[in-house]
């Protein structure tokens, strides 16, 4: 009998997770058994992400050869990210204004999630100044930053180390070869981790459905549909136009990365496919020096799906409480989100904490977050997927912009559509 491929296994994990969740709806005991399964998978992913990002950046930057080339690449990358995320925020605001997902919703019919941990994190963030975000990019202890999973300090240190190795010339080759071997070993380790992905998906989905069920989604159905409509429009129109502008076959691109996008959607975690996306981008025709810089940086700065979610959710809460948001207030909100959305991956609680701080800055009711918290896993499935698609596409775009796209390699890998792990 032919063994089922990983995508089919993940899909089955998703289906069985929904079934088990529905069967044991409001049975708190089931969480005791399912939650550890999902948590173990996410911990395994987090275990390999930082070492892969660190070693890949060191190898990529060292291979780039000079700070001048890095500066040019960095400028183009950040420029692209800023334009993409700003458009994403505008799309989120547009959908919220047109479809009014929060208008007419009776708050008494809504289930409230526990947001105490997000409030505590947001209050901790508020103690520092806005400049602390920049200061915290420079690590005082790189080992501590790695242990905490803070990617921006890791990226900063790895970039400097890569430049230092490049400047050493021949004497730096032994250290560079070590990081090349280490990077290869980590990518190989990912193949072991992914074997438990179907069980992780089963546990994560099972816990979510058993806690909130399907009935709790109905009052917020309009918000869910509006969010996914915005995600879909952004993917088809914005990503599609960018792909056409840079002569990328977008349908072919999506098909090539479909397994990774399915994994991200199922686990509701952008981290889950980050190693495989980086590996497949190299096979797609992008050089390691660009992939190892663009993808990790994009993980913090190019969060298109999260920006759509933040804009849409902010206006949803305003509509829920009957607060009028004129154009001037929405422009202010856009500017707030353009700042607060950066570095989202380095915050415990992710988008919910950033949404909380954005609500506070915009003067909107913080308690409104409790109504969204219960369905955040559902919304996050789509936004995480858009984030990953955006970063994968950005790598190809920047590669073509830099004139380093390998067309022969791309043609060969698309034909075979098989990547050795």
From TrEMBL:
Keyword DNA-binding (UniProt): no
Subcellular location: Cell membrane
Gene3D superfamilies recorded: Sodium:dicarboxylate symporter
Keyword ATP-binding: no
Topological category with respect to the lipid bilayer: Multi-pass membrane protein
GO cellular component: plasma membrane
Highest taxon of the lineage: Bacteria
Protein name: Proton glutamate symport protein
Record lineage: Bacteria, Bacillati, Bacillota, Bacilli, Bacillales
